[in-house]
Amino acid sequence: KNTWLIVFGGFIIIAVVVAINLRTRARLTQRKLQLENQLIQEQAQSQIQQQRLEISRDLHDSLGSQLTFINTVLDSIKSSASKLDEKISSKINTLSDFSENSVSELKSVLWVLNTNEIHLQDLKSKLLNLIKNAGEATENLRFHFAFDAQDNFQLNSKQAINLFRVSQE
């Protein structure tokens, strides 16, 4: 009887050790998977941020320089516009203003691309500026804008740019 009891006790001890070992391995495997998933997410975020920086650099270098060139040409035309009639001079001034606003808008887009979170009040300010510019572009069209959000909560950059683009349309 003692031999069977010792053998039975030994099996129980071995079974408990094996169960603890399997449980520990399962926990370690689960933790390893969690860490790998977290690493993959961080790498994806890093890659997205890198792409944003590349896009913003490309926009700044290409579109920004072209808009600056347009501003320079328009300023040159404005300085010699004394020979032109008042209506053409006014249109040149309007073009110059829109070109300068385009540079500002480009800077805003670059800011959105390089920012992870944007406050609602910042978006409201950008929308008000957009509406002001659109109102100046057309003489027979009036805009009414209501923005009644009480809290200045944060949006991620994708939400903010999507709301801005919908408003532009």
Q: What are the defining features of this structure?
A:
169 residues; mainly alpha; two-stranded antiparallel ribbon; 4% strand
DSSP strand content: under 5%
Q: Number of helical segments?
A: 4
State the helicity in percent bands.
Answer: over 70%
C-alpha Rg (nearest Å): 32 Å
**Which structural class should the secondary elements be placed in?**
mainly alpha
User: What distance separates the N and C termini?
Assistant: 89 Å
Number of strands: 2
Overall pLDDT metric = 80
The biggest sheet amounts to: 2 strands, antiparallel
**H-E string:** HHEHEH
Low-confidence stretches: none
C-alpha geometry? elongated
Main β-sheet, spatial strand arrangement: 1-2
Describe this structure as you would to a colleague.
By secondary structure, this protein is mainly alpha-helical. It has 4 helices and 2 strands. It has helices at 2-79, 86-113, 120-137, 157-168; strands at residues 117-119, 154-156. Strands 1-2 form a two-stranded antiparallel ribbon. Helix 3 runs parallel beside helix 4. It is elongated. The mean pLDDT is 80.
Task: Write a brief caption for the model.
With 169 residues, the protein is mostly helical.
Layout: helices, strands, pairs:
Blueprint: H1 2-79, H2 86-113, E1 117-119, H3 120-137, E2 154-156, H4 157-168
Antiparallel strand pairs: 1-2
Helix pairs in contact: 1-2, 3-4
